[in-house]
Design goal:
The structure is a homodimer of 207-residue chains. With 207 residues, chain A is an all-alpha fold. Chain A has two domains: 1-48, Homeodomain-like (Arc Repressor Mutant, subunit A), CATH 1.10.10; 55-199, Tetracycline Repressor, domain 2 (Orthogonal Bundle), CATH 1.10.357. Helices cover 72% and strands 0% of the residues of chain A. Chain A has eleven helices and no strands. In chain A, helix 1 (7-22) packs across helix 4. Chain A is globular. The interface between A and B is large, with 51 and 51 residues. Chain A binds a DNA duplex (30 and 30 nucleotides) through residues 7, 28-30, 38-42, 44-45, 48-51.
DNA sequence: ATTTGTTTTAAACAAGCGTTTAAAATCTTT
DNA sequence: AAAGATTTTAAACGCTTGTTTAAAACAAAT
């Protein structure tokens, strides 16, 4: 695997790695410079300050994060298939980047009134038309009457939380890393059927 | 409401409040002292160091957190009723202490190989006999065949995540604090029926 | 009232922080 | 090869960090 060539990319890579694992308050400028294999001053020569560098990293991470949740909505599948595919993609993404949800939520909490907003990604979300699609599916009776907020919460919770609470759950059940990796694969199928059974119940009595 | 009387309790209260909202790396000793209305030296006079004080706070918080998840298991209810009551209690607890899950998971990640373990609480968990109870319920066909790890994960995810991802979800859907508070009340009932429907499905064809 | 012990404070400590400066090293252009 | 511009470094800046010291304020006991 080829690593970054330019100095600027080296810094970004190092910063992303360190920020993701320790958070903004949990690391130092010198730690990032060391990870990038260079002087502290050079980091600031390219990015002016720790905070400026952080903002750039945060934006790219946030963008990837939101994109992973949204690209499914642009497909031509049925709503039920979309939900199923969304869960698959989320687990795939979070297996590669398990620290991202914790990182995003922590930094949003640290920087409440500041520039860590998500307006553009939010607009893209609305433009996919998935809201209208869900409303129609509920009207026709295909889908259970669940508001979009709770729908979002259910999917996010059951996808993200297993990766966020990994340490606690492993300790709680005395599991090794490998065991937990396998558990996650099993768990994905469980929550998928739980969610789909709930959202798209089989008609029982009438019709 | 009466506040703490002794100096030691004042420090503990202040430390708990600051640690919970900002985490260990996100706050300073002087900030805790200020919150307690006193000098920095006095905090160290009672607790020797920032880390020592933190460990005491972490233990009490962790204890409360685990207790909130476990006390339901000691009741004499059926397994289905236990799950239902557990969700109620979790939402009740997390409404009062919404920062605790994030705090616990963050500090576990920061202090991986260190003294933030949970062995005693873990033993109590096994002693409630809920594992045996679940195994029996699965054998008799009363409960779906879901391993205890996934069962734990499902409940934790759907209870804790709405409180952990509050800021993100509010921004995503443009909700006020009051709106989100109401959403949580609605959401609790939704995930309760989703989880119970899944774990204890109504027999359809045979019998 | 004076002594003794405890609690609280102001001030200082070395170390580490984010950031800047100025000089060295390297690359570009002529 | 020399000059100029760019990249990288070592060293320092002032400030904040966690922690300690020594003295002040207070309480209790003789």
């Amino acid at each position: 695997m080829f690593k970054a060539s330019t100095t600027e990319e080296k810094i970004k890579e190092a910063a992303k790695s360190v920020f993701l694992s320790k958070g903004f308050s949990g690391c130092t400028s010198r730690e990032i410079a060391k990870e990038a294999g260079m002087n502290v001053a050079l980091v600031n020569y390219y990015f002016r300050s720790k905070n400026q560098l952080f903002l750039i990293i945060y934006q790219t991470v946030m963008h990837d994060f939101m994109l992973s949740m949204m690209e499914v909505f642009s497909t031509e599948l049925s709503l039920k298939e979309k939900v199923s595919l969304l869960i698959d993609r989320e687990y795939e993404f979070l297996t590669k980047h398990p620290e991202i949800p914790t990182f995003v939520l922590n930094e949003m909490a640290r920087n409440k009134d500041a520039e860590l907003q998500i307006h553009e990604t939010l607009n893209n979300f609305a433009q996919t038309g998935v809201f209208v699609e869900a409303a129609n599916a509920q009207m026709s009776g295909e889908m259970r009457q669940v508001d979009m907020v709770s729908l979002t919460m259910i999917i996010m919770a059951n996808c993200q939380h297993p990766f966020m609470a990994r340490l606690l759950t492993q300790q709680l059940h005395g599991m090794t890393d490998a065991q937990y990796d396998m558990q996650i694969i099993k768990h994905k199928e469980i929550i998928k059927s739980m969610i789909l059974n709930y959202l798209f119940p089989k008609k029982s009595t009438n019709e």
